[in-house]
Design goal:
The strands form two sheets. A five-stranded antiparallel beta sheet has the order 1-2-3-6-5, with no helix packed on it. The chain has a single domain, classed as Immunoglobulin-like (Sandwich). It starts with 37 loop residues before the first strand and ends with a strand. 0% of the residues lie in helices and 39% in strands. Strand 7 and strand 8 form a beta hairpin. With 148 residues, the protein is mainly beta. Bound molecules: copper (II) ion.
């Protein structure tokens, strides 16, 4: 059985194109179960971002590893993970370049995200949507892209 609160959860997936995103969605809270992880919008998942390569501006050779773990009782299984780089202070994303999310198979909640393009240095966000079983939860993870 699902908790009643999930019956009213309806979160549209955000378009990736520049200029059509709503304002920044703040992370709800940080959680202690995975050190450095962020809690998704309805509290079902903890998400941590570790950089394998980068982050660097002006290249698609940025690779991040997402660790996604249930927070408390698992409410649904993550079947789709979408990642959108967004530079909130300027109101733009990465144009037509979309990150590629692959399940690594290492462990049930580990995903490799490649082809992440930051058009400039500065403060970025990774807007992450985790979907499954008709539900979507979001989390925003800040990323500081250093100057070269
Ligand atoms: Cu910018």
């Amino acid at each position: 059985m699902r908790a009643p609160v999930f019956a009213v959860l309806a979160v549209a997936l955000l378009p990736g194109a520049c200029g059509r995103q709503p304002e920044r969605e703040m992370p709800v809270a940080r959680t202690d179960e995975i050190p450095g992880a962020w809690l998704t919008s309805n509290g079902s998942w903890e998400v941590r971002v570790d950089w394998e390569t980068g982050p660097r501006a002006g290249t698609v050779d940025n690779v991040a590893r997402l660790t996604i773990a249930p927070h408390g009782d698992a409410k649904f299984l993550p079947q789709l993970v979408q990642v959108t780089p967004w530079m909130t202070i300027h109101g733009h994303g990465s144009g037509n370049v979309r990150p590629v999310v692959d399940f690594t198979g290492d462990n049930p909640g580990t995903f490799r995200v490649s082809n992440i393009y930051f058009v400039m240095s500065g403060p970025w966000d990774l807007k992450i949507a985790i979907s499954g079983d008709g539900f979507t939860e979001n989390v925003v993870v800040p990323v500081e892209v250093p100057r070269e």
